[in-house]
Amino acid sequence: MFTAPPPLAGASPLPLDGITVVAVEQAVAAPFATRQLADLGARVIKVERPDGGDFARGYDTAARGLASHFVWANRGKESLAVNLKDPRGLAVVRQLVAGADVFVQNLAQGAAARLGLDAAALCAGHPRLIAVDISGYGAGGPYADKRAYDMLVQCEAGLVSVTGTPGQPVKSGIPAADIAAGMYAFSGVLAALVRRGTTGRGGPVEISMLEALAEWMGHPLHHTMHGGTPPARTGLAHAVIAPYDAYPTADGARVLLSVQNDREWRRLAEQVLRQPELGTDPAYATNAERTARRGATDALVGEALGKLTADEAIARLEAAGIACARLRDVAEVAEHPQLAARDRWREVGSPVGPLRTLLPPINLPGSQAALGAVPALGEHTEALLRAVGKSDAEIAALRREGVIA
After folding, report:
1. Does residue 311 surpass a pLDDT of 80?
2. Is 178 annotated as catalytic?
3. Which of 2, 103, 171, 375 has a CB 3.0–4.6 Å from the CB of 131, allowing a cystine?
């Protein structure tokens, strides 16, 4: 049986201790937002369908039989499995919302409104409630009713157009649109809680995946709008800096380096390439010349690093004061020496036993992140129903009739 680490002696309370969140959520965007709230001490009640729950539970079985997306985005929550299409199930959720501080939903466009669970309706009835609507494209406009999966929004926001190689656009390897929307929902809730602390009133928070990711497109978007030229896709290279790329090493690894100015180029030539004459060679001495001769520049760097192991290349680059990194795969990140040295790994409970997880990146010295367990579907249904006054007989009847799980 997994046991959580003991509380820190004299630890300060987490910022969201005492805050209750009810979330009718699925997939990634809303669950990722509410997990941040749970990590900071909020009580998060996750409302799921009785017939399978959040569909992200079925994405894969990689986490010892559980779905990796679900494990990542749902620790520290209580699972209430209830049918919202049944008036009795909807009434339970309404009772929970009446006592909550925050409500979050990311149902298909219009579904929350049909249930009376949209932000505008809930805030009208509960003035202190902060109610978050997360959608793909926003409540209005010609795209309001379009399906909005992460990859589709990456395409619509232009992210795919600037990611990849000159010959092949690619989507991000992580759900960037979902994460962007989740993080803006999280920060929107925090801002609304601060406002409620001064005004006494909550209010709606509206987040669109497209608008969130379009904001993250700031550099290429402003470059194009104000400069007139969309940035080229360059893979791991940089459109206007050379050398700036990942180069193979003798042991089969790849090391990325970035030369930011001509002084660094001279150091690279002297201390890494061991060809000091290149530092002042007119063909390579300026970034403009190196970029114009990118192929030849990369060949010089590649030849030098190709004779070294990754460790040797990193050591030589760092001694020369050249920014560099090892190109790691995901398995290597899980064993990253910096994460280990900073003691960033913990275990959380789950239906299949303890699972390794990272501490949240918001560090609050003197406090300990909540890091609750990943819930089984409906694990907390009975306790939550009893909390809103349901008797054992009523709970049994609801279970028999398929209203809860």
Report:
1. yes
2. yes
3. 103
